[in-house]
Amino acid sequence: MIYLDKTCLGGNFHKIFEQKGLQFEVVDGSDCFEDNKKNIYITSQKNRFVHQCPATREYRCCNYMVVDAVEGCPFDCSYCILQVYLNHNFIKVYDDLEGIRESIISLDKSGKCRIGTGELSDSLAIDNILCMTDFLIPIVNKCENIQFEFKTKSTNIANLFKHNPKNVIVSFSLNPQEIVNSEEHFASPVVARIKAAKELSDYGYKVSFHFDPLIDWDNFEELYGDLLDQLFDSVDEKKVEFISISTFRFIPELADIIRIKFPETKLLSSRFIRGLDGKMRYFKSRRVEMLRFIINRLNKNWPTVFTYFCMEDKSIWRRLKGFDPGLREEFEKNFKWYRNESIID
Ligand code: SF4
């Protein structure tokens, strides 16, 4: 159900819902409805919409910027960090689209940057309701210095075909279907995500993929190997802008939440070690094995695609890729887009 705060009457989303004929209820605050993932709440609260992706100096970070226009997600991944970060289950949507527009435009003036909406929500999961792509794409396409990423585990891509794909990347997070079934509740089947990526790339969008989090599993190599083969068979290498790879990591507080909420999960059955940033990770030897398996397959089949590790330490970079990408500003120069080598004409 959609709940519109009474302070948002006459506002941006009120108009969108009326135009689309969507039902909503006007409420006086978020206490007026049940706190669950099926509920969307439009608020007039102000926010600091654009900021750097949170990272620590100990691990290599790509200097990504995030737009927090929506907080919360209808999917229910067992490993989702939002279970700790957010103090609500409902999906909170900021009505202050002007504030978001201004934040993006002022960022554009400060130099080249990669930015996206997929940090505190799935970028497209409810785009049929919120139409954030209709709002954001015309803005970013007027920006000289921005490459904008929509990151998703959904196939909710219909709105994207109305737009010029110029400055936009659509990225899909991928895991083998056995892991999706076990850990990514309500997200789209992985084969459908790959099909959506192909359709978007045929239309002209740059696409990218996130193998993040890689999850240790009994038959890890067989499952991820099959997934990669499916991807290689379906999507043209030339349309792929980048691929990120990283293993499952979590702050210790998340473990109890996962155990209570998802008693059947296999996520926590591996051995973990506390990293320099306080997060729990697989042992380094296992991380290297997992990352090496993926990177070797990618190098062999898609040698021209830029691949990177999200939040890994420099020794792993040196071991698996032969160089240290450096800290934020230095790291980001490795992306094709910074070198004016993006792939779509
Ligand atoms: S899709 Fe992303 S934001 Fe949504 S529940 Fe899964 S991990 Fe969390």
UniProtKB/TrEMBL annotation:
GO terms for molecular function: 4 iron, 4 sulfur cluster binding; DNA photolyase activity; S-adenosyl-L-methionine binding. It holds the Pfam family SPL. InterPro entries: SPL (IPR049539). One of its GO terms (cellular component) is endospore-forming forespore. This is DNA photolyase.
